[in-house]
Design a protein that fits this description.
This protein is α/β, with parallel strands linked by helices. The chain has a single domain (about 1-265), classed as 3-Layer(aba) Sandwich (Rossmann fold), CATH 3.40.50.300. The protein has helices spanning about 15-20, 35-55, 65-85, 100-110, 120-135, 145-165, 175-180, 185-195, 215-220, 245-255, 260-265; strands spanning about 1-10, 90-95, 110-120, 170-175. A four-stranded parallel β-sheet has the order 2-1-3-4, sandwiched between helices. Helix 2 (about 35-55) runs antiparallel to helix 3 and helix 5 crosses helix 6 (about 145-165).
Length: about 280
């Protein structure tokens, strides 16, 4: 039995990836995003820092005692959820705010695997700006350089700690663009890596095992539910940033997220950049 934790920046394809991993019958169904385990990992991060740099072991005798203290509630929560859905061999949960703390999950839980969705940061930034516009926080097309820089910095921050954890045999990245363009290849690799039987995967029914009602979410006007949620896999949103970002916006995102773009082979439009062309 394993725990599979799905992370990635918001708007990077985490919900689709979650749906794919839960499409077999060896897992729980797709549930709402849960941030509870992320909050526990955040608390562990702070406690570990203070143990190492501030309180000199006044509260925990050693690092193993600290680790065990936080490992127990995580596993207890995971097992509670697993039992609620028939005790499947694999429990799969998703949280975007978990991403910066993914390495801590690997430290605390020996039998967990972490899968992180990554997407062209220009598309992530564009999608986040669209969400803000639909929420009335900004007018699409009238965003400022500061808006673009702020959102791009958040994207880079979300992934930075994850990237530092590489290479790790229980940490795996999936490019959104690969998932939507060659889904069978990507899903076959995911199945082998996680041990989840996804042999019956159908790209036209990627959300087959879900408790979420995406039509109801759309009817409620949720800014985070796109017209693709709950439908077949499609690559129509790849490169969507070209309809949202101005050339100066694109250059700014490429500069701020240069490490991410280089690590995952996203081609820059900036002249002279090694990935440009």
């Amino acid at each position: 039995m394993t725990y599979v934790l799905v992370g990635g920046a918001a708007r990077s394809g985490t919900t689709l990836l979650y749906g794919v991993l839960c499409s077999g019958r060896q897992t729980n169904p797709v549930l709402f995003e849960t941030h509870l385990f992320s909050h526990l990992l955040t608390a562990y991060s702070h406690a570990r820092y203070r143990f190492e740099h501030v309180d000199n072991g006044q509260f925990f005798s050693d690092a193993d005692t600290l680790r065990d203290f936080f490992s127990r509630p995580l596993v207890e929560f995971f097992e509670l959820v697993r039992a609620r859905y028939g005790s499947p061999p694999h429990l799969v949960l998703k949280s975007t705010v978990f991403t910066p703390y993914a390495a801590h999950a690997l430290d605390l839980i020996a039998d967990c695997r972490v899968i992180v969705s990554v997407r062209d940061p220009r598309d992530i930034v564009a999608s986040k700006l669209e969400v803000e516009a639909s929420q009335g926080k900004a007018a699409l097309g009238h965003h400022t350089e500061a808006d673009v820089g702020r959102v791009a910095a958040v994207v880079m921050r979300d992934y930075q700690k994850c990237l530092r954890a590489l290479p790790h045999d229980r940490l795996h990245f999936v490019r959104y663009e690969d998932l939507v363009s060659v889904p069978h290849e990507v899903v076959s690799r995911l199945s082998a890596w996680t041990g989840i039987d996804l042999s019956g995967f159908d790209p036209s029914h990627a959300w087959a095992n879900s408790l979420r009602d995406f039509e109801a979410d759309r009817a409620r006007g949720s800014a985070y539910v796109t017209d693709r949620f709950g439908k077949g896999i499609s690559d129509q949103r790849v490169g969507r940033y070209r309809r949202v970002l101005r050339p100066a916006d694109v250059r700014l995102v490429e500069t701020i997220c240069d490490v991410l773009m280089t690590a995952f082979r996203y081609r820059s439009q900036e002249p002279g950049h090694p990935e440009a062309g």
